[in-house]
Design goal:
Layout (H helix, E strand, L loop, with lengths): L5 H4 L2 H9 L14 E7 L20 H14 L9 E8 L7 H14 L2 E11 L6 H7 L6 E7 L3 H7 L5 H13 L5 E7 L6 H14 L3 E6 L7 H7 L8 H17 L3 E4 L2 E3 L6 H8 L2 E5 L4 E3 L3 E5 L3 H9 L5 E5 L2 H13 L5 E2 H7 L3 H14 L3 E4 L2 E4 L7 H7 L3
Parallel strand pairs: 1-2, 1-9, 2-3, 3-4, 4-5, 5-6
Antiparallel strand pairs: 6-8, 7-8, 10-11, 11-12, 13-15, 14-15
Length: about 400
Amino acid sequence: MQLKESKRVHSISTLKHFNLITFQLYNIPYLCPMAGIYIHIPFCKQACHYCDFHFSTSLTYKAELLKALQQEIGLQKDFLNNETIETIYFGGGTPSLLEGEEINRLISTITDLHTVSSNAEITLEANPDDLDQKKLRELRQTPVNRFSIGIQSFFDDDLIWMNRAHRANEAESSVKRAQDAGFENITVDLIYGYPLLTDQKWKQNLDKVFELRVPHVSAYSMTVEPRTALASFIKNKKQAPMNEEQSSEQFIQLMEAMEMQGFEHYEISNFCKPGHYSRHNTNYWKGVKYLGIGPSAHSYDGEKRQWNIANNARYIQAIEKKTIPAETEILTEENRLNEYVMTSLRTQWGLNLDQLNTIAKGASEQLLKEAEEFLEKDWIIQKDLNIYLTQTGKLYADHIASELFF
């Protein structure tokens, strides 16, 4: 069975990619559109072989960087036009390298300059090896109320192959310690579709997650990003290429297992128990405004996107001069149409034809004409004014979206 384009459907880079291109979904009832703030912490203990996110393994300028983050929050205070902040997300990099007091300083800077919702979702990405009892006690003294823990696998050989900093026993114990410390709102990351991961090992990884009773899971197919160690290994024939057939089969295995356990498949790479959606990431897919703070961080205000320079030293230097080191792109009508198609189709709420027409008159007619092929293949279905990916269609999500672009 040849599954064209399937690897790009649910890749590791997918979440990052869709954090950068957003537009408004329609009528997602469990969230009130406000705004979000993303803070990029560009430090890691070591470089994972597959990762192409911006980070440094040197903490030499950590203090200067944190000061610059606070300064940028001030410089960008008007970007969101006084909208209430509903979510704050510490991403990276490895934000769990921060001390509790450092996290508090950043959040205090935000609350001094913005109105923050009393029930704001405040997420911290964390590596399992950072979440010892001391760190968890520190984090209990912060407003952080949600963890995104980078498990990736519960097998040591897999973690070594990925060059992860933690080991399998830490992966499991970190979740249990966090739960014991009172953190129940937890999501874990898993990766599939790489040579060491047999279907049986993948099943064991999923079973372990279910055993740990976490309410949210993000799962990504291993992809080979340029300028990563993994790409170099494959180029020099030290590592076999990824197997797209394996990735597709393990994605199907993932969807079936999640459904049996009562998880909603609410976005291509994301699964949750009812009511446990990632509010921050769902707002990206809804097109809610967000401000990105830090080197390489992206921002969106409904009309334009901007992205900061991905260089720590140059970022710090610019901020010290009270300059935002960012590029800006004004969204055209075509941009907005294509981004809406791409983001909405990835979700369980689908694409709304009326919403499409609010962006450009007559757009729904053109899209329906292009969609006939996929309707015939049963890759998408139409219910009233909404279009959804079918279970099979989810294997081809990126391909379908690109073919429907305007």
